[in-house]
Amino acid sequence: LKDTYNRYSYLTLRYTTLKDTYNRYSYLTLRYTTLKDTYNRSTNTAQPGHLFGTSLDCVLERESSGFLVPLLVRRSILEIEKRGLDIIGLYRLCGSETKKSLLREAFEDDPETVDLSSENVPDINVITSLLKEYLRELPE
Fold first, then answer.
1. How many H-runs (helices) and E-runs (strands) does the chain carry?
2. How far is it, in rounded angstroms, from Cα 17 to Cα 1?
3. CB of 135 closer than 8 Å to CB of 108
4. Are the C-beta atoms of residues 80 and 127 closer than 8 Å to each other?
5. How far apart are CA 17 and CA 36, in angstroms?
6. How does DSSP assign 53-93, residue by residue?
7. Residue 81's closest CA among 69, 93, 68, 91?
8. pTM exceeds 0.85, yes or no
9. What are the beta bridge partners of residue 19?
10. How wide is the angle at C-alpha 120 spanned by C-alphas 53 and 56, nearest 5°?
11. Rounded distance, CA 27 to CA 14, Å?
C-alpha cells in the first residue's frame, strides 16, 4: 500500500476464530503499519540497554576488550562450540524465556562476569536464543 505521501506501508491481518458450544465466531483485525515500523528489528525499544539494541561500534568502544566482536558474541560462540556442536537443531530450538531474560540482564550489567557454564546454563538453546536475539536487535 502507498499512503498520501507515496510512502509504502503494510496492513497486518490477524484472523482469530473463537469456538462456542453452539456457534463459531470469527474476528478479523487490521492494523496499519508504516514501512519504518515494519522493519524495526529491535524488541527492546522501551528501555534500550548498553548492549542490546545498540550499534556494534558503541558496544566495542564501551567494552574496550580488544576483540573485533562484542563479548556476548565471543563468549556465546565459545560456549556453543565447546558443548553444543553435536546437538541437532542447535539454532532452531528455543531456550527458556525466563533463563534467557536473566542472562540478558547479566550481560547488560557486566558481560565479563556472566557464567555460561553447563552448571549455570544447562540448556545450550538458551545461549543460542540469546545470541539470536542480540543479532536480531542490532540496528545495523
1. 5, 2
2. 26
3. no
4. yes
5. 30
6. TS-HHHHHHHH--S-SS-HHHHHHHHHHHHH-TTSTTTTTS
7. 91
8. no
9. 24
10. 20
11. 8
Q: Which helix (H) or strand (E) holds 130?
A: helix 124-136
Angle between helices 124-136 and 97-109 (to 10 degrees): 60
Helical (H) or strand (E) element with 15 = strand 9-19
Task: Find cell 556453543 and name the residue.
Answer: 80
| Secondary structure of residue 38 in the 3-state scheme | helix
pLDDT digits (tens, 9 = 90+) for 65-111: 888 999 999 999 999 999 988 888 888 888 889 999 999 999 999 88
Taking the CA atoms of 58, 60, 65 and 71 in sequence, report the sign of the dihedral they define. positive
Q: Which amino acid is at 75?
A: R
Distances (CA, A) of 65 to 27, 78, 121, 139: 53, 16, 24, 21
Which residue type occupies 132? K
Residue 24, strand partner residues: 19
Q: What percent of the chain has pLDDT over 90?
A: 35
